[in-house]
Amino acid sequence: MKRVVVTGVGMISPLGTSVTESWSRILDCESGIKKIVSFDVSDLSSQIAGQVPSFDVLQTSSTLFDPLNYVSSKDLSRLDKFIIYAIAAATEAMHDAGFDSSLSDEDKERFGVIIGSGIGGLSAIHSTSIKLNEQGARRVSPFFIPSSLINLASGHVSIRYGLKGPNHAVVTACASGTHAIADAARLIKTGEADIMIAGGTEAAVCRLGVAGFAAARALSTHKNDTPEEASRPWDKDRDGFVIAEGSGLIILEELEHAQKRGAKIYGEVVGYGMSGDAYHITAPCPDGNGACRAMKNALISAKINPEQIDYINAHGTSTPAGDVGELRAVEQILGSNSKAFMSSTKSSIGHLLGAAGAVEAIFTLLAIRDQVAPATLNLHESEETFLDLVPLQPKQKRIEYALSNSFGFGGTNASLVFKKF
Q: Would you please indicate which residues are annotated as catalytic (active-site) residues?
């Protein structure tokens, strides 16, 4: 089996329009969660979100997202935001990896794309449905379907860069981004590709998306007036997750290929585990059994012992049941003698659904690079645990191996192990 390393990263998040800005603000303990002002929320129980900084969003980011930096004005009306976010993250990742103009025809045939999403073009579906009902069928755009299909994020990135290797999409709810990265790594390990761009993208912050999750009683509703305090993983005052949007993509590369071209390396993908809860469509196993098996499989895949894990970027959504299930699963896997730190960066940016795992994989790689565990914000009174959940402030930490967890509706679980290179 070939070895797989990460040579480029790209991100659009509620904290910024680049990896550097998002990571800097994470370490400064800033929050990207604000009151929603881009559409009417007066009748919604949850009125907050982690939205990408733009001209119609209340943000303090130093840079605002301008889609015209990535697509033409003509294409702007033909693409849902989840595709535009993916193109933007891909642009940064390709540049970061040094692939701006250096791809040969041979490289392009060995370079693939896997971009996942939990929901895809929900905004386009919502707005088109209204237009159909109010204005009739003739007003439906011929670009509606291709602007909504989840695999079109991969399709557009593939077309833009001429990438002719495997072209695929993953749809596993909030585990989509993690599964996409892992599937891409496997294609390289087995020799079916040399390079892959992989991750997740999501843009479900619209009236339909917020109303739907609110109806399922999944969202935080108690902190509408203090949105920065709403996402509080493991805190006893938590009451649900905060919906968010954005994209995270990474460049995965076969080690010898990366070394031959002198690429910088963020870390190595050494383990992947997945499992199914077989329990409930939305609720996790109360004892964390499914999450536990995913992490165990990831450690077996990485050929390491639990005590070698130094940091875990948790799924940690801030839901009452989910946080406890993951906490108990990690305790069971690591044991009470563990010195590992575990934190949830969702406390800063909210839950990016299908993009969450990819964005968090990038934060995990940066934690390894900078030897620091980012903080869990708003964690004032924690669930009882022997684990250090890194409350309120980041902590310096020797990190050789790190785990990144993602779990999704339907009982799908995924864990990735990264190693310092």
A: 174, 315, 351
